[in-house]
Amino acid sequence: MTVTGSTPPEDEHRSTRSTRRRGSGPGSGGSGCVFLDHESSAAGDGDGIRMTADTAEGPLRHISVLELAAAHRIVDRGKRLIAVDLRHAEGRALLLDLVSSADVLVEGFRPGVMERLGLGPQPCLERRPRLVYARLTGFGRAGPWSERPGHDLGFCALSGALALTGPADGAPLPAANAVADMGGGGLMLAMGVIAALLEAERGGAGQVVDTSMVAGAASLLSIVLGLRASGLWSDRRGTNLLDGGAPYYATYRCSDERYVAVAALEEPFYRALVEALGIDSRALAWRDDPGQWPLLRRLLATAFARRPRDDWAAELPPDACVVPVLELGEAVSGSAYTVHAGIPQPVPGPHFGRTPAGISRPAPEAGQHTAEVLASYGVPQTRVETLAAQGVICRERQAAS
Asked: Residue ranges of region Disordered (predicted)?
């Protein structure tokens, strides 16, 4: 489980406006709020207290430590981590005690797991009426797919997003795990949590915020769905304006086997591209004629194949909208990344002008902050020792042994 902020238990009944310490601590806009985040998958990101909650249903236990180590170093940075066995009644009681002082609880288990543990929304909101109980599933909480395990690729497939990627004459192509896992899942849930927190801050009660990665991925397709409803988008992949069908919104191989991305959608940019590459001026009339797109694509491909990628990126005018396609190893040296603990990772974002975010601490080890967090919640040391002896909690030295 992960906890953010440091709202002391004795302050739980005071006015949120008077006790929250805005702008202090590492989380910028989120500081002063306490997040409890159940670890069951990489569904979502955030700053808080992560609970490694053993329910015997966690799918990540089947992935090797080496496979997850680097990702853990990035997505869990800034968090404190405690380890609690929720199969044990004392572990469940401990979670409810923590909920009593929390602002947000995030859980990503399959539907029904938290209810079977007696930790569903009702008992948690009874303990903390202001609580935002955030839930993230893969395929949704109801329906024929709800109980199935899954990953980004499957969620994208069911949402329709996967069918949009890839060439017209080839198979759909995965987009790493950026669309459903991180975009449709984590970011959508985060926006819901922020909205619910704001409503509670303005005097409202807590509530459940529930989304799925399939629904989130579908919501990212709003523009495409609008184009399709207007008859401006075909279900045939690779034939549309924004899926690589238009030759002036596509990628091209250069003489050094690297690629450039061309996004000259608007007429002035398209004109700048055609003129800068020295393509036949008749091509200026082909922009809105799909029948001429195959010929235009061949002309663009021939032109870009004459020179290396970086030459094109440096010498073409800005209005041609040509950008080098960077390998990830190249991109991490750019301004969107930093290196922390020897691992390249995204800089904290978005940027806050008055309360800038930062990396307050590296990713924790298993059980590293169990004693620290429980002490900050006022759990007596004798109870901590008893819970550790019973195997309900795991502290750092136990995890390392």
From this structure: 1-37
Residue 219 has pLDDT above 90, yes or no: yes
Given pLDDT bands bounded at 50, 70 and 90, which one contains residue 396? Answer: low
Q: What is the pLDDT of residues 153-197, one digit of tens each?
A: 999 999 999 999 999 899 999 988 889 988 999 999 999 999 999
Q: Where are the domain boundaries for CATH 3.30.1540.10 in the chain?
A: 249-253+259-324
CB-CB neighbours of 398 under 10 Å: 14
Peptide bond into 290 cis (omega under 30): no
* C-alpha–C-alpha distance, residues 185 and 155, integer Å: 10
Distances (CA, A) of 180 to 198, 259, 384: 25, 26, 39
Buried-exposed string 179-211: b where 16+ CB fall within 10 A, e elsewhere: bbbbbbbbebbbebbeebbeebeeeeebbbbbb
Q: At what angle do helices 381-389 and 89-99 cross, to 10 degrees?
A: 140
Q: Who wins on pLDDT, 256 or 74?
A: 256
The CATH class given to the 9-220+345-400 domain equals: alpha beta
pTM (predicted TM-score): 0.81
Distance between CA atoms of 27 and 8, rounded to whole angstroms? 17
* Torsion sign over Cα 22, 24, 29, 33: negative
pLDDT at 34: 62
Give the integer Cα–Cα distance in Å for 51 and 105: 11
- The radius of gyration of the chain's CA atoms, rounded to the nearest angstrom, is 25
Distance CA 64, CA 348 (A): 27
Q: What Cα–Cα distance (Å) separates residue 141 from each residue in 210, 214, 263, 319, 375?
A: 9, 11, 39, 47, 35
CB count, 10 Å around CB of 94?
25
Contacts of 191 by beta carbon, 8 Å cutoff, 6+ apart: none
Portions of the chain given CATH number 3.40.50.10540: 9-220+345-400
Q: What is the CATH number of domain 249-253+259-324?
A: 3.30.1540.10
Cite the active site residues. Answer: 151, 181
Question: What separation, in Å, do the N-terminal and C-terminal C-alpha atoms of the chain show?
Answer: 21
Q: Is 207 helix (H, G, I), strand (E, B) or coil?
A: strand
For 266-288, give the DSSP string. Answer: SHHHHHHHHHHHT--GGGGG-TT
